[in-house]
């Protein structure tokens, strides 16, 4: 990239533009480049106009160019949101582009990328512009640091056409002798981490109302992270590990160490590691404006529990309390615990979840640079992430368990019966899902400074994959034609000891696989639904194909670059095991008349993964509480899943069978 070139491309038939900067935009260090002849510039030229008012960047610039930026740090966020405001205030797209180009080399590059991406997502005139892929801009945050020297070597020494993709071994952070490493393929998956980075981009913690105040965002914070913990727990059970332990006591040593083996592209040094049994400490990081004691977190936690258990919270600045209402109590609690600027009372309930990230991220040395838990792009790599979020989830559960159980009537859909469920995979026995390793190649060249701008070097990653499958669901409708919502979840059938679960223990392990509406005719309906249609995932191509170099301006390029938020399709189901890991697949049909939400938009380009990400510029498309029907304790006398079922639900035992075969999928020989 030429310095100052904004990292995005305008989409459309015209293809890509090369951006030409006004001379005055070049900072001193690039003076030699600004005098270069423009003949190097290809024909599609977009000339950036100089803005008449140079923005005041004092606040964004106060974070140095060599410091890593953290979304969990309030001061860093304030710097970024100031820049977001500047971008949002640009009168039109040309002015926005011009401002973006001006700011690119002036402010911290990581902060810039974050602020620029938020502005792109939230300006009405930039909806058709792709958000730059985080993994292409900062590959160091996603791939083993060892490959970058090799990538440079390939690019320098090996001529185009003869380069091979650089394979990243699956065991690069440890080996399976280290128990926690058995689930490293989940924690370190590129798609999983991209999803988490993207989710926090769509739901920033502070900023203007149209950025922060999104429908049920506090509830979605709870639900999306609850599902991550449920998915991680299932993955652990498949690998003979017990469910993750909550980080209950902030003063106990944290058993799990973590060695990221990643480079920090901004600070230009490796990410710090955490050795086993490290203890959290109070933080006093003057430069990052972080001053927080463990005791602060304990106080906020206790106050939040008091609010949960009394069912009332203290209103900010007033000597009165308000009750959590059944309709939005979980949303209020989500904002409070996270905590974002919508929190009802930050003085009283503080900044619990974010400072948990901060405390853990500085554990190795409270006076040094933060570790992977401090960045939403890398946090999910660390076993401590799941311990902290399992604890946060426990707080939400405490609230949910105080709500009245759903009655049989609330759960039922009169005249509707789910009579049969089948899961089919081509070439496999019925009701078996097949998993294996797959390899994909990712272009590293965009995020690295290669001398040869045309050079491409691929990293070859190995990730979990499953064979595509379909659900066949038979539903009997005794009434007239009507619309139903089909909800599909699954959970492990047996616990760590091989015993069946009590419903109260199993309900938190249910993982959403899909939710969709279906027009039910009178009589028998056979609903066929494919795994790739899932409402929790984005397509495989969106994770991997858009990480490859595509022909400029091609249809392929246009198709996969929107909205990166969504669980990656290749991680839809857990790994299982070689003998066929038993799970229970649950299907429920509910009445769409009660589920439908007025005022939702469909955004065909951006609603693939609405269950975990919502829909852009729209209300959350389901009226039921997120996680329904597993979010509350069951009615009296229900001890097992079978006892919980009403006629509009059914359960099927499935097996997930893993094979060690490695299949090649999207592989490109580098050119
Ligand atoms: Cu996503 Cu703690 O919120 O990482």
Q: What would you say about this model in short?
A:
The protein is an alpha+beta fold and 671 residues long. It is 29% helix and 18% strand. It contains 23 helices and 20 strands.
Give the helix/strand layout:
Blueprint: E1 18-20, H1 31-34, E2 45-47, H2 58-61, H3 74-89, H4 93-104, H5 109-122, H6 134-137, H7 146-157, E3 166-167, H8 184-187, H9 190-202, H10 209-212, H11 217-238, E4 263-264, E5 269-270, E6 283-285, E7 290-292, H12 294-310, E8 312-314, E9 321-323, H13 329-338, H14 346-349, H15 352-361, H16 383-400, H17 408-411, E10 416-424, E11 432-443, E12 458-466, E13 470-477, E14 482-492, H18 503-506, E15 511-520, E16 523-530, E17 537-538, H19 540-543, H20 555-559, E18 567-568, E19 581-591, H21 592-595, H22 610-613, H23 641-644, E20 649-664
Parallel strand pairs: 1-2, 3-12, 11-20, 17-18
Antiparallel strand pairs: 4-5, 6-7, 8-9, 10-13, 11-12, 13-16, 14-15, 14-19, 19-20
Helix pairs in contact: 3-5, 11-13, 11-16, 12-15, 13-16, 15-16
Bound molecules: CU2-O2 cluster.
Please tell me about this protein's structure.
With 671 residues, the protein is α+β, with helices and mostly antiparallel strands. It folds into three domains: 112 residues, Hemocyanin, N-terminal domain, CATH 1.20.1370.10; 222 residues, Orthogonal Bundle (di-copper center containing domain from catechol oxidase); 257 residues, Hemocyanin, C-terminal domain (Immunoglobulin-like). 29% of the residues lie in helices and 18% in strands. The protein has 23 helices and 20 strands. The strands form seven sheets. It has a seven-stranded mixed β-sheet with strand order 3-12-11-20-19-14-15. Helix 11 packs across helix 16, helix 13 runs antiparallel to helix 16 and helix 15 packs antiparallel against helix 16. The longest helix is centred in the middle third of the chain and has 22 residues. The two termini are 19 Å apart. The protein binds CU2-O2 cluster (CUO).
């Amino acid at each position: 990239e030429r310095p100052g070139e904004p990292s995005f491309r305008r989409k459309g038939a015209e293809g890509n533009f090369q951006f030409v900067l006004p001379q005055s935009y070049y900072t001193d260090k690039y003076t030699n480049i600004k005098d270069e002849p423009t003949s190097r510039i290809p024909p599609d030229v977009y000339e950036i106009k100089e803005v008449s008012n140079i923005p005041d960047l004092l606040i964004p610039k106060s974070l140095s160019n060599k410091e890593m930026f953290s979304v969990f740090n309030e001061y860093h966020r304030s710097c970024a949101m100031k820049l977001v405001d500047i971008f949002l205030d640009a009168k039109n797209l040309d002015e926005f582009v011009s401002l973006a180009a001006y700011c690119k080399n002036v402010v911290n590059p990581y902060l810039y990328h974050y602020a620029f991406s938020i502005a792109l997502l939230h300006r009405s005139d930039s909806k058709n512009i792709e958000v730059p892929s985080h993994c292409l801009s900062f590959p160091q945050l996603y791939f083993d640091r060892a490959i970058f020297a090799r990538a440079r070597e390939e690019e320098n020494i090996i001529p185009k056409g003869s380069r091979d993709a650089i394979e990243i071994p699956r065991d690069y952070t440890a080996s399976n002798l280290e128990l926690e490493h058995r689930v490293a393929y989940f924690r370190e998956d590129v798609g999983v981490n991209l999803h988490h980075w993207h989710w926090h981009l769509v739901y920033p913690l502070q900023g203007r109302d149209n950025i922060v105040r999104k429908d049920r965002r506090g509830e979605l914070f709870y639900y999306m992270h609850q599902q991550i913990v449920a998915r991680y727990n299932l993955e652990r059970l498949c690998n003979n590990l017990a469910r993750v332990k909550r980080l209950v006591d902030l003063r106990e040593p944290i058993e799990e160490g973590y060695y990221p083996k990643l480079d920090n592209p901004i600070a230009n040094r490796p990410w710090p590691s955490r050795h086993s049994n490290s203890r959290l400490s109070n933080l006093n990081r003057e430069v990052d404006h972080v001053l927080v004691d463990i005791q602060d977190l304990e106080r906020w936690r206790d106050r939040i529990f008091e609010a949960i258990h009394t069912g009332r919270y203290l209103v900010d600045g007033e000597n009165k309390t308000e009750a959590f209402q059944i309709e939005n109590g979980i949303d209020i609690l989500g904002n409070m615990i996270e905590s974002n600027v919508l929190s009802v009372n930050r003085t009283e309930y503080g900044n619990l979840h974010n400072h948990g990230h901060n405390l853990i991220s500085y554990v190795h040395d409270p006076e040094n640079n933060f570790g992977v838990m401090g960045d939403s792009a890398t946090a999910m790599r660390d076993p401590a992430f799941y311990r902290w979020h399992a604890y946060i989830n426990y707080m939400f559960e405490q609230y949910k368990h105080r709500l009245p159980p759903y009655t049989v009537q609330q759960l039922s859909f009169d005249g509707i019966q789910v009579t049969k469920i089948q899961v089919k995979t081509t070439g496999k026995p019925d009701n078996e899902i097949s998993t294996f390793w797959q390899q994909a190649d990712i272009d590293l060249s965009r995020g690295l400074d290669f001398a040869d701008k045309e050079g491409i070097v691929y990293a070859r990653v190995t990730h979990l994959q499953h064979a595509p499958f379909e659900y066949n669901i038979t539903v009997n409708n005794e009434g007239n034609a009507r619309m139903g919502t089909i909800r599909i979840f699954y959970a492990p059938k047996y616990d760590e000891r091989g015993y069946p679960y009590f419903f109260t223990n199993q309900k938190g392990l249910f993982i959403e696989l899909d939710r969709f509406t279906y027009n039910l005719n009178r009589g028998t309906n056979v609903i066929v639904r494919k795994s790739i249609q899932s409402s929790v995932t984005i397509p495989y191509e969106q994770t991997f194909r858009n990480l490859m170099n595509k022909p400029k301006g091609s249809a392929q390029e246009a198709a996969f670059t929107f909205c990166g938020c969504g669980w990656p399709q290749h991680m839809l189901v857990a790994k299982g095991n070689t003998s066929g890991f038993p799970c229970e697949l649950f299907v429920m049909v509910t009445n769409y008349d009660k589920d439908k939400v007025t005022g939702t938009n469909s955004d065909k380009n951006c609603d693939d993964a609405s269950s975990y990400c919502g829909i852009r510029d729209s209300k959350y498309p389901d009226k039921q509480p997120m996680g329904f029907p597993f979010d509350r304790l069951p009615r009296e006398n229900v001890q097992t899943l079978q006892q919980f079922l009403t006629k509009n639900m059914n359960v099927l035992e499935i097996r997930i069978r893993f094979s060690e075969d490695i299949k090649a999928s999207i592989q490109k020989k580098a050119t």
